[in-house]
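pinning this so it doesn't scroll away 📌
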Amino acid sequence: MSDLRARVEHALKAEIAPALELDGGGIEVLEVTNGVASVRLSGVCAGCPATIMTVLTQLESELRAKVPEVEILEAVP
């Protein structure tokens, strides 16, 4: 696992995922390559396209603040 992926996982799981879990959702980091972090949302967050876009927009800005090398956060089904 790359250091960048480890930093992304830490930022998402330790600092951001607990808020998702309060709403019955979850997040899994699949890959981090060329500034793109690919994640899979689970639970309540996974079923609604509008929710996915809202969650991703919020998570992406928080993730960029914590891991500036990540430019894009994308959801993978």
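📌 and the second one:
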Amino acid sequence: MVLGLFGPIGIPELAIVLVLALVIFGAGKLSGVGKALGTSVKEFKESVQEEEEEEEEEEGKNKEK
């Protein structure tokens, strides 16, 4: 169960969302949408990690001074 802005989201709600996505995008394009979403999430995580590493390096340099 995921808690978010709209309250708890359970299995029935997720099933409704998946059915709506299937109707809107169609079975052929749904896999492409999922792949694009996964790629976007991966790139976002990598950019966040890079920013954190840069901040840690700057803090290390500041402590040396």
